Every structure is written in structure tokens, then in C-alpha cells.
Amino acid sequence: MSGIKVDVQWSPVEDDIFITNGTTINLYQTKERNGTLEIPCVPVSESKTSQEKSRITLVATNSELQYMKCVAWYPHKEQKNIFAIAQANGRISIIGFGYNHTDDLVGKEFNVRYNRTCNYLAWNPAERNLLAQGLERSRNEPCVLIWDVNSNNTEVGERSRHSFTEGPITKPAVELGAGESSSSFCWFRDSKIFAVGMANKHLRVYDLRDTNKAHLDVQHRCVAGVCIDPNDVYRLASYMENQVAIWDTRSFDRPINIITESKNVVKLSWCPTKIGVLSVLTKDSPHVKLHDIRHSLYGSDEIEQASVERNIQPFNKSLLSSFCWHPRHDNRLIAVMPNGTLRDMTVYERIPMEWSTSFEITMPFTKDLITNFEETGQANDISMLMRKRLSLNYGLQAQDIAANVMAIKDEPHLQGLWRWICNIRALIASQAASSSKYRLPLASGIISLLHLDREDDILNSEPVAVSWKASEGAKYSNRTHYRSNERIMALQLCGWVTDHPKDNFDGFIDSLVKGGNPERASAIALFHLHIKKALEILSNCAMSSEQGEFFWQPAGKPNLQAVAMALSGFTEEKNALWRRTCGTLRYQLVNPYLRAIFAFLACDEDNYDDVLNEEDMSVEDRTAFALNYLPDSKLKSYLCKLSDELTKAGDLDGVLLTGETSLLNSKGIELLGNYVDLTSDVQTAAIAAVFSMSTMLLKDTRIIEWIEVYRDLLDRWRYWHQRARFDIVRQSFIQERVPPQVHISCNFCGKPVTTGVPSSMMGRISVKIHNVFARGPQNRPKITCCPSCRKALPRCAICLTHMGTPSGTGLESGSGAKLTPFQEWFTWCQTCRHGGHAAHLIQWFSEHSECPVTGCTCKCVVQDSVSHPMFQGLGKKDETVSSKLGQQ
Amino acid sequence: MFVAQTIASEHKDLIHDVSFDCHGRRMATCSSDHTVKVWDLENGKWKCTASWKTPGGSVSRVTWSHPEFGQILATCSFDRTVAVWEELGGDLSTKGDSSANAWLKRISLADSRTTVTDVCFAPKHLGLQLATCSSDGIVRIYEAVDVMKLGNWQLQCEFNCNLSLSCLSWGTSRTSAPLIAVGSDDANIAAGAKVLIYEYSETTRKWHKVSTIYSVKEAVHDVKFAPSVGRPFHQLAIASDELTIISLKNVREESRQISSEHSIFEIRQSGRFNDHGSKVWRLSWNITGTILSSSGDDGSVRLWKANYLDIWKCISVLKADGGAPEEERASIHAPSMSSTPGSFRY
Q: Which positions are tagged coiled coil (chain B) (predicted)?
């Protein structure tokens, strides 16, 4: 070991005071709990500044005594900071901080015969006048001395001939262990009993009232560092070399457990605030090891090592000199390095924790306090987002697409998907209305619409020369558009309205302007060569925003005027200054549509790459532009490339291109999959799959997985109503019969006695009954017996007619009342399984609480105290509960 | 902003585990004071509705089954046993306020020769199964023969990992074959990898080791699979001296038809952090598997979230005393960071 060993101990009475003792005694005060700052105990002058900032301050220091061996803190509440100090020669001096030798205790000295090394000092915690001292062996002298510091019989001790000490020899109150050595000692709490390790082979427990004979005695090599668990008076621990023995005083003949450390133990101590936790410091080790010794089994043949252990490393990898637990504070530990560096630390428990289903995390920080953290603000996590969307009925409305879009209005990355859903529905509806032979496949994207996913090129678009709609006088050469039926449908899918006399193109553009996006309107107008219209939009918008006429427009677009002006100078002349300037200046524009406008005007006849690669433009607009301007082969390569990129990026806007059905290459599912992988937004994936209305799609395993996971999430959030509504939405797209859930079956033949639509599993009979019901309600037969075996149904407990017979209640209560199906309903107590007509039972239980059946003492009404017991258990939809009515 | 609500636990000793039921409305805690407590959320406040003492000593883990099988808890204690508890509804609870009796021990599984260190119910789609691991390295899978009779559990499978096990976790994906990850707290670094992944093969009806996480060699204290929420890959968080997040992708996914062959996982490390500056004890994922929380020896709980590039970073630090994390200590450990370039610290 390097340097002088420094030990540390907390004040037995004060919470913020501790000392270190090495060559000197230093008294420290901690300003704050958890003062985990370290003081480098280099010369005081240097460390002064750091000390001021640190939470541990040096209060006093004493370096008068030479060769200090042991320090014991006097445990008195009033007489603070008094220490008994044993020097190497065995002399005990009592010193104090802040006493001027006026106190009767401070300044006393106790000398031993024959100078010997002192091994320990220990004040009795209850009878504070008693101080125990342990010494090395010397001739036949006693090795354990217990001094009474208040007794004044110091004079009687005669000076020994062999002593070289200056002070008077006093006589100890108790002397033990003649001719032996003592290595460790411990007082039992508030008692006159103490444990002592002696002669390297004995562990003994003595009683002060009878010190002649050891109370308990065991021969064992672990005699060092004996300490008593402050939380369990029967438990002791001691060590020798690398072995730690744990003892129970009730069965003291052998240790209850032995822990073997890898290195020699130098300090052993019980944690005063935790039950059964033993802390061990081994030689040259950077950590204090904690053993939870309760978990070893008593009396077992194969003693397991203490199962819970952990290491505390106060100074990371640096070696420790000593440590001390705070006697009262939970898990507070002070550790010291050989150079005197200190750390007052809190040892944290292992914190278990768990997330609740909502954004809430719970953890017990201490044994008696569980802390529940809840995120109340806007956490940007998908789990919160899903719940927020659900509160806005996201995905719960099959027909009203706009309501779904409203729920996600803050999330632009989802808008493209919903625009596609909206457009494809409109397209399908218009196709159906126009009674054309061609049936549009459900949930298709532009790629499959244009048959781009097929090898053979069947897209035969014809080029159409389109002239500019410019103001009078201006003459521009025509541009070429490509047209085909598929392209027109695809354009509709993009949300564009074609510049066809039939369609309301101007209305479309105007609606875009009103929608607060004049740049886009202008660009689309220009792409249709309505340059005049485009200019008008821009200049109108610039002016109106200055005047603030249109309040819905975002303010501050005056630069549109400048853009309009620049546009009006458009010339087709190659190498003209205008074109070159446009080509460079457009990169300074912020709005992608304005950039696209200039790119469009500046580019050559057949090269629209600048427009097509304007990535900030929405996918729809880029695609629509391509649909207008690109010839077939280029269109194919452009769209395929674009869809590949979007698929890879998991960009939901790409659904427009891929659709969701193309099962052959399943690009759409791949895209959704990538989206889920990136965002974990299984909600949107499940809803998108459902809203595609494609039955084929809902059979894909990944899609099923998403839907199931999403339903599971809803269930875990207890959003059962939302789950049910989602299921309804899903069901509304797949035309499938829903099997009934609960059957009443006949007690004799086991066939259902059902008044509902029978499930398909019922086979032959179901068909028959189904036919019966097809006749209509007026012909509905009275079922008073099982329809298959003709045995009578059980009787109503009140009126004793067979169930199925009209209850007759309605007739009694006057002319106005009618027979309702509810009154004939069978009902029964879930516990005693007695019942009858609903109306009769209601009457009965309005007056009685016990079952109407003779001999049955069931308090049926009490069972009903739970709010709605009938429908509580029916969580799963496909659950078929078959209940049998007992015959009376 | 996180708002903390505290609950007086009334446990007399260290709480070892806390577990929520499927809906997050019930909570179970277990402690060194031999008791298990069940808490119910009533009007936004947690109320202890049952508390009972177990005979087996300190209870180290507690876990809920899916409510589909009933209100069932499984606990493991240091006395080498696993207990399955069921809440009795109806008759008994109406008898009076003897709510503590409402939980009944259905069975005590005492197969282990050493301490059972973790117990976990399988995901719902695998039925009522229970996996346990013990410090002698044996993983046992039990299955309730009849959900109505919880006194009858059958030891379905048993395999030895030859490492002292400390934790296990079930894979959560319902499309892939059942997976279990186990972690070992063997402190011997030379003993090699401490996290092993086992897969159940339907054809052989056995669990096979399909993967070994070689990057973690220090003692592992917790492993947790993230809820899959439809992702085709598995995410696994490992608590050791550092926090490690890995993703496992089955490269044989495409040819899943050949079910006799077990999966081959491509392992990618998404992040490795030592922000705790010390051991990481426990882990928990949120419901969508998008936020991971870790608790460490520094007495703090850290929340982690990935951005769209799958780069994880610490988004929040929660402390018992509400204090800020110690910057000074953080800086001590900064140089030894061995994480991805995108790792951030707060």
C-alpha cells in the first residue's frame, strides 16, 4: 500500500461532520447532502480556492499527536467532537476540537503497562464512560482493557517499572484475555455485551456483568473486523485475509455464511440503513463491494455465495483507502483515497422502472417512494401522436376523408397519402359513373395505371402541340404535350384538372390561389402555358397582400411583383440575356414553385430536367408535370426512378406512384414498410391499408401484422370504442358476414336455441332457421322449445311458463302497453344461473334481493352492483360464449 | 416537461421490480421485505389494493400476464422458486375488505436448483407461457396446460446456456418464430459474449441458439426486446457497463417457407452509450418501442430516442431528487465514449 492509510468516520451525533485520520485528524463539514465534490488534499494553500467552491470544508485539524493508531469519536450529544486517540505505544489521549482543556474529559490520558500497539478503541454507545481498548500480546498482560473515563481512581495505579510512559498508570475497569492479543471488538447496541476477536483464533462474546467467562466462544480464524449488524442484533460479521464470515449469535458454533473475496479484506462494515447489506473493501481495490447476505439460504448444504452483490466505485479506477457509511442517512457513504481526496456520495439503489401504456414512466427511487413521471406537454413521440390523432377520430371515418385529413393537419408528410386516397376514390367514382368498360383496379398508383410495371409498352400517347395563351402580340412557339386516356386519369390522381373545355381549369387555379398557394397556382397555370393567367395571379397576389385585402393569405409576398415583372420579360430567344439571368437567379428564390416557373421558361424544348428535379415541389406536381411533358419512354424511366427513391425513403407521398395493390412487385407495401420502419407509425400504415379498400391487400401478411398490432395498441390503451370503430371501418370495406358472438344452446341436444342469425358453423339447422326468419317478423314462430330436438325450454322462475312464451306483463299494466320483445327476453343471474322473463325479473328484483327460485339463496341483486356486468367480459370479437340454461 | 407524482409505497425494504399490466391501469411492485403489492389507478391516483407476504423471502421480479388469461402475476424469489398468483374475482372479493386474500398462489415452480433471476410471460400470441432463467444458466419454459386451471403448469422446454443468467426477454414480433434473449451477469470478461439469442423451432420443438452478441462482454444486468409494432426487425437493448442498442434482422426472412431452418440474424449496433458513467441496471421500452429508458448506478433514469437515421440520443434525464445530472462526472467519462459518431449527450 502506498502512503499512509487514511481512515474516515462520520460523527456519531451530527449529520454533517466527519473526520479523516491519518497523520493528522481533520474535521470536515459538508454543506449539502450529496456533496459529491472531491477535494484534492494537496497543501492547503493551493486547494483553498477549490475548497471554497466545494461542498466539503475543512473545519479544524489536529496534528499534535504522533503515531496515531486509532481514533474513536465520543458519542455524546452535548460534548461534541471529542476523540479518544490511541498512539502506537498504547497510550490513550482524549482530545477535543473547540475545548480549552477546561472540560473534565478533554486532556485525560490513559496509559498501559508495557508499551504495546493498540489495535482498536471503542466507546460504549450507551454507557458513554466506557472505552474499550485492544492491544497486542505482551507477556501475561491482558489484551482487552475497558476504561471508565469518569472514574477518578487514576491515582491508585502504581507506576510500572517497565513502563516508559510519562503519565500516570491508571487501572482499567475491566481487564480480559491475559497473555493474548485482541484484534477486533464491537459493542452490541445499548447493551453491556460485546464481541471480541482474540488470539487469532477465538471469537468471543462477553457480558460486562460477568467477564470471567466468555458468554459465547467459537474457534475460527476470522477474528478481524468483527462488527454487529445495526439492524439485526443477532448478526455478526468478521474477516481474516480474504474470507468474510457471517455469524448468527443464536447458532454460534459455525458461520452461517462465508464469502470469499479475491483479495485480502481491509475493511468490513454493515450498512446502517439497509437491512442485511455488508460492505467489504479489499486491499488495493477501487471499489467497495456490497453483499446482500439475506439471500443466502440458511442451513442449506450447498451454500450459495451471497447472490446480490454490487460494486461501488467512488473514484472510478483509483484505489480507495477507506470508506464509512453515514450512520443515519440512507445510502450515504464517504470514501477517501490514500492522498486524502474525499467523496461524499449517495449510493443509488438499482432503480427498476417501467413504461406505462401512455407516456408515463414509473420508478421506485427509494424503498418507500414510487415516482411516476408523466409527460404532460407535447412529446414528439409516435405513441403520443397516435393518441392525439385518435382523439381527432383519425382513421375512424370510412366515408368522410376530410375528417381524417383534419386529424393530421399538422403533419404534412401524411397529406400526400390522404390526397391520393381522396383522389383515387373520386376517380373510381367517376369511372363508375361514366359507365366505361374499363374498371380501374382498386388502390392503384400511377405506375400501374399507366401499366409502367409491365414489360410490354402499351402506353401509346400522342404528342399534341399546345400553344401559349399569352397576351396579344407575343408570339411563342408551341410546346408539346402528351396525351392518352391513362395519362388523363393519372393527372386526376395527381389532383390536377386538365386544360380541357369540359373541365373547370380556371376554377381549379382560382381555388389554389384562394387556398393560399398562389405560387403553385401560377406555376400550374404556366405549365399549361397560361402565361397571362400566371402573371395575373402573381401580380394580383403581390398587390392584394400589400393592401391586406385577402386576410387568409399569408402576409408579405411583395416580391411576387418582382417575379411577375421578371416573368413578363420572357423570351424564347436562345442565348438571350433574360434566359441566362433566369437560369442563375432562380436559385435565390425560396419558393420551389417560383424556381420551377423560371426553370420551365428557361429550359429548352425537350429538356425539362430542371423542373422535374425540383425536389421541393410536391410529388403530385412533379408527376403531373411529367405526365404532361414527357414522352412515354422518358416518363417511364422518370416515374420508376422517382418511385424507387420514394420507396426507399419511406416517403408516403410515393403511394401516389406505387399505389397499394401492385402485388406483383409490391412496391406499395414495401414503401409502407419502410415508412413503418422509420417512424413506427403503424397507425397510418394500418389505416392506409384499410382505406385502400382492397381485399387482396388485406390478405398480405405484413398488412395483417400492422392491422393486428394497431388493434392491439388500441386495446392496450383501452380505446375499445375506437378499436371497434376501426373494425367497423375495416369491415365496411370487406364484405364478409359477421358471425354472432353468444348462443344459447339447448341443454339436451346442444344445438343453439337462437333468435339471431345463426353462425355458419351450425350447419344444417342453421340453414333451416335462416329460412324461417326469411319469412319476416309477423310469421316468426314462438320458440318455446328447442327447434332441433323439440324439448321444452326451461320455465321462467316467476310465471312458470316456458321461456319464449309471451310474458304477459304488458297486458296487465293497461291498454297502452304493448308486448315488446324485451319482455320475453330470457335473462338469468350469472352466478346462480336462475332466471326467466326479463320483465318478470325486473319486477321481482325491484322488491327482493334474493333469487326467486325456491332454495336458492343467491343474492342476485348484489351481483349486479358492478356497473354493467352483462357486456364487460366481451372483449374479443370472435369469442363465442355458449351458455346453457339449467332446467329447473 | 415531465411532471412527477409520488406514491408512498409502504414497502419496508428495497423495491426490486415494478410492472404494469397490459393496459397500464394496474401496477405490481415487489420488494426485499417479502411482499408483493398490487396498485390500481383510481381517479388518477394509484391506490394499493392488495399486499401480501410471500413465504419465499425477497421477491426479485414480478410480471403480469396478458389479461386475456386472467389477472395473473408471476414472481420469482431468492428462494429458487417461481410463484404464479391469480386474483380471485367475484365471490371472495364481496365477502368484505379482505382484499389481501384476493390473490391466491396457484403454483410454486421449484425446478431450479439455484436462484431464479428473471421471469417473463410470453407475448400473448404464444399462449400462456412463462420463461424463467436461473443463475446456473438454465432457461425453463412453462406452459399452462389449461388456462382455467392455473395450478397445472408443464415444463415445456429447458435448455442450458452454460452461463450464470441474470435476465431474459421474449421477442415481441408475432410473425417471426418465438425468440428469447438471455443475458449473463458473469463478471469474467474472458468468458466471452454475455447475450445469447435462442429461437424456437416448430419442427424440432426445441430452442436453438441462433445468435450471440459478441460486442457485449461485461456483465449484463438487463436485456429487453422492443415492441415490434410491425417492424420486420428486432430491436434489443442491453444493460451492461454501457447501454447497447442493437437491431437484429433475419436475413432468411425471404425464404421463410423452409421452416426447418432457423433464422440467421444480421446484427447491427445502433448505439452504445456510457452516459450513466457506471453500470446500467434496468431497461424499459415504451409502448411503441420508440423510447428506451435506462436506469444506472448514478441514480438517474435516462430516456433515449432515435431520429429518422436510427441515431439514438438521450432526450431526458430523470432524477429522484430532481437535480441536474452531474456535469463534472460526465466529463470524466467523456473520453472513453465508444459510441457511434451521432451520439449526443445532454
A: none
Nearest-CB residue to A316 (from B135, B281, B332): B332
Unique residue bearing C-alpha cell 419511406: A650
Residue B181 has a pLDDT of 94
Exposure b/e, A735-768, CB count within 10 A at least 16 = b: eeeeeeeebbbbbeeebbbbbeebbeebeeebee
Residues 6+ apart with CB under 8 A from A596: A523, A611, A614, A617
Mean pLDDT over the full length of chain A: 75
Nearest to A361 among B22, B293, B326 (CB): B293
Could you identify the residue written with the cell 477474528?
A223
Which residues have a Cβ under 8 Å from the Cβ of A395 and sit 6 or more positions away?
Answer: A389, A404, A407, A683, A684, A686, A687, A690, A691, A726, A729
* Nearest neighbour of B287 by CB, restricted to A292, A677, A716: A716
- Confidence (pLDDT) at B1: 65
Of A763, A371, A877, give the one whose Cα is nearest residue B7.
A371
What is the tens place of the pLDDT at every residue in A823-833? Answer: 667 788 878 88
pTM of the model: 0.80
Length of chain A: 888
Name the residue among A544, A598, A547, A604 with its Cα closest to residue A575.
A604
Q: Residue A499 in contact with residue A530, Cβ under 8 Å?
A: yes
Nearest to A427 by CA among A378, A484, A475, A491: A491
Higher pLDDT, A730 or B131: B131
Question: Above pLDDT 70, what percent of chain A?
Answer: 76
B20 vs A275, A354, A366: nearest CB: A354
Please give the residue of chain A at the shortest CA–CA distance from B117: A307
- Residue A557 confidence (pLDDT): 60
pLDDT in tens, A250-303: 888 888 888 888 888 888 888 888 777 888 888 888 888 888 777 655 544 455
Res A41 pLDDT > 60: no
Secondary structure (3-state) at A538: helix
B interface mutation test: which of A350, A713, A863 has the most B CBs within 10 A?
A350
C-alpha cell at A612: 422535374
Q: How confident is the model at residue B259 (pLDDT cuts 50, 70, 90)?
A: low
Residue predicted with more confidence, A659 or A123: A123
Closest chain B residue by Cα to residue A875:
B68
Residue B196 has pLDDT above 80, yes or no: yes
Name the pLDDT band for B139 (thresholds 50, 70, 90).
Answer: very high
Name the DSSP class of A855: T
Does A372 sit within 8 Å of B29, measured CB to CB?
Answer: no
Answer whether A382 sits within 8 Å of B58, measured CB to CB: no
Query: Is the dihedral angle over the CA atoms A675, A678, A682, A684 positive or is it negative?
Result: negative
Burial A860-884 (b: 16+ CB within 10 A, else e): beebbeeeeeeeeeeeeeeeeeeee
Which residue, among B13, B229, B249, B304, would best test binding to A if mutated, counting the most A CBs under 10 Å from its CB? B229
Query: CA-nearest residue of chain B to A365?
Result: B320
Mark yes or no for CB contact A367/B15 under 8 Å.
yes
Q: How far is A637 from chain B (nearest CA, A)?
A: 28
Of the candidates B46, B231, B301, which has its C-beta nearest A353's C-beta?
A: B301
Angle between helices A619-629 and A485-493 (to 10 degrees): 160
Cα(A387)–Cα(A382) distance, integer angstroms: 9
- Report phi then psi at A848, rounded to 5: -125, 160
The x, y and z cell numbers of residue A269, run together, are: 462494515
**Residues of chain B contacting residue A370, judged by C-beta atoms under 8 Å apart:** 6-9, 15, 18, 29, 46
Burial grade of B52 (CB within 10 A; 0-12, 13-18, 19 or more): middle
- A-B Cβ pairs (cutoff 8 Å, strict): 220
